[in-house]
Fold these 4 entries.
Entry 1:
Amino acid sequence: MKKKAFGIVLLVLAALVLLQGNFGILHFGGQIWPLIGIGFFAYQSVEAILRRHFTSASFTALVALLIANHFYDIFTDSQSVTVLGRSSNRARS
């Protein structure tokens, strides 16, 4: 079953590489390889949730989110704001 799922993932990734920019599929600007790392950490996070290991699930999900934010600029804030949850632009009291 794992080999079949891995094969399907590779086929989908190959289709993304070939068809990006066409048929409404987003163009990643040559940065499609970080999707492998993001997918790996997201998969590890889902596995940890299913095993009820919520601490490791949250950390692996955070790593996947940080990688995605670094390469694809999902959030407009910097990495430190994503991790720490505060902005340096606010007035400190």
Entry 2:
Amino acid sequence: MTWSFKLAIAADCVGILVAVFFLISDFFKQSSSSNGPLTLMVVAMSAWVGLCFYLHSIGKTGLATTLAWIPAFPLLGYGLMLLAFIIFGKSGTFR
């Protein structure tokens, strides 16, 4: 597996784990009764990652890597933005 494929799949899996965390925490807090769309997105993203692994295993590595990067690119951008907010704070200066 190439580093690009591994990085994209890791970002996708982290996104799935964060969504599962929100599903479980909402279930225990009983704060939301409608988690249908989030559940559907977790299932869809899991199927997407499974499709990428399948394509990679049959030798279509370029297509698998490209498909893995489609959801990974915005997820990594969002994660970097959150990291910047944590590091620099709301004022935009380093603490």
Entry 3:
Amino acid sequence: MEEAQKKFIILASLVFLFAIIFVHFLTPFERNGNSLVSAGAFLLFSLIACWVMFYLKISLKQLQLRINVSVKEWKVTLLTALFICLGLLLVKILAVESFFKGSPIFESSHLLNEGNTNFSVYSILLYLMFCPVQVFIVNVATQNMLLYLFANNKYIHIISTICATILFAAFHLVINWLLALSMLFFGLYWSILFYRHRSVLTISVSHMIVGMFGFYCLGYLKLFNQIISLIH
């Protein structure tokens, strides 16, 4: 297969993904309906991406993906995740002290609330399972595929990082716009980290740590909803 045909197939798949995102966010479903549509759409794209890689015989070596990660890279990943968590804690404390006095800093008590599906064990397990899938779609099927296709373009590392960052933020639009906006920072950080490490494992673990602490311990989703209520 010619190089032009390969590029067309992969770029068509990426266009399909972005089309799914924007059509999906225009649908009149409620949040739970949107979540199911999101899961189905992103699963479909993952299958398409796997098929493209198999059909074009693109190996992990060609994509420069790494399975073995050095101890130094693990230390950088985990220490950075720890500092991000501390930053999230500091921001939450400042937000509570300045605007939401009386609100708890930690929201982990929700985990024990029977019937609270947003913070149930099922929700946590689903989140942990979805993190690697999200990394695959954003960083492997999008960012890394662009790096592979346009390796001769001197700006492709910047372009691919921007595309991955926007895509990662777009994943969270189904919840609310403020969360998606904040995810631009995290999407940028993980895209840069992926570009340096080329490891799905380290990015997924970092994503799990930061996400679990931010959403399930500090209750950032509730905080964002409170901020949106104040704005409105």
Entry 4:
Amino acid sequence: MLKWQVCENRLGDYLASESTKTSPKTIYATAQKIADCYHLAVKDAIPKRNPGFTVVQATFIGLNKLPVQDGFHTVLKRLSKSKSESETKAIDWSPAAAGILKYWTGKQLLPSAPPPVTPWLDVPTEFGTAPPPPAAPIPIHTPPLIPPSMVLVPGTLKPLDQQLRDAFNKKKPRLVAKFAVIAFQNHAKLISGMMTWLNTAPPVAPPVPTPFPWTGIQ
């Protein structure tokens, strides 16, 4: 489950708060808060269901907020040293976008439910009939090659860098938080990968690896 609203609220509260001696709003602290909020929002995500199949029940393994924190820290540190009074450009936010991509790069999935071979109930007509699972046998005595269940595409650098730039150029703290989360949400739709199970359903004998692609998280 994604917690975008919680992320927006906490980030907005932080950005709107005053810096104090006990809780100074340093560059490092701000980058850390952004990473904390992002990680809170997505750490319990699962792959988004594909039309015609039941939801893919699996959790992401090894998600680490440090790449996000480092990316935003790099950007905020550079901007703090800049003498330019003009608004930032998309390329200025590339390290932050790259940090978010690194957060997802190569992350594997731990299945927590049977493979999604059952068509949805009440499938919308525009999706048509769900394709059957592959059932081609492999040669006898040949061990199956099982590709790992993992993220194959961690999203794209663009337009994420541009959307982060637009968000952090807002004048009001809560608007910054709102549009930063919108940028996070848009990027989450582009994350994609593969789930793989051994298909043991008849008439498959011996079992063969069955890949199930997915796009987006929920």
